[in-house]
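Justification of resources, computational component.

The compute hours requested in this renewal are based largely on the per-chain cost of generating structure records like the one below. Each record pairs the submitted sequence with a full C-alpha cell output. That output is archived, and it is also reused by downstream analysis tasks.
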Amino acid sequence: MAVKKILMLVGDFVEDYEAMVPFQMLVMVGHRVDTVCPGKKAGETVRTAVHDFEGDQTYSEKPGHNFAITADFDAVSADQYDALVIPGGRAPEYIRLDPKVLEIVRGFNSAKKPIAAICHGQQVLVAAGVVEGRTCTAYPAVKPDVERAGGTWGEVNETFSNAYVDGNLVTAAAWPGHPEWMRKFLKVLGSTIEP
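The structure output for this chain reads:
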C-alpha cells in the first residue's frame, strides 16, 4: 500500500474520539496524518471534548484530552496532501470562520481528493460550499444546514453507525460510525489493508 499524506483540521473542543481514533486508525494502516489548527503551530495542542449519548435530548459533553498539533496551519495547502479529515465537536462552528480553512476544503474538493467529515465537521463543508447536490449525513442537528446548502440528507440509523459516500465525500453522523466511515474512506482513498 502506498503511504498517503492526510490532513486533519481540528480546533479546541474537537470531539475527542472523532479526532484521536481516526488519527490512530489512519496511522495504524501506514498513512501519515498531519493535524493542524488555525492559529496554532506544530508542538502545540488543542483541548478535546467527549460527547456521549446518555438519553438526554442532545449529547452530553465532558472534558477530553489534549490532542497534538503536528504541522503549522499557515504552512499547509491542499496540494500537499492526498486527503482531508474533518472531525466534529464544537471546533467546526468556529474554524469554519477562518477563510484559509474554507480555501483548504475547496482545494481538496476541486481536486476531487477524498474528504472525510463526521458529526459537526459537515458545518465546515457547508461553509465551504461543497455539499450542494451531494448526499451526506452529519449529526442530526446539522441536517437543516446540509439541506439549506443544497445537499441531500442521508438518514442516520438508530445506532449512528452508518456512513455515506458521494464521489470524493465520505460522511458519518457520530463516533459510533467510525468503523463504517473509516472503511469507506480508506476505499475512496484507494488503500488496502493486508490480511
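The CA atoms of residues 19 and 60 lie 17 Å apart. Helices lie at 16-28, 91-95, 99-110, 122-128, 143-148, 178-189.
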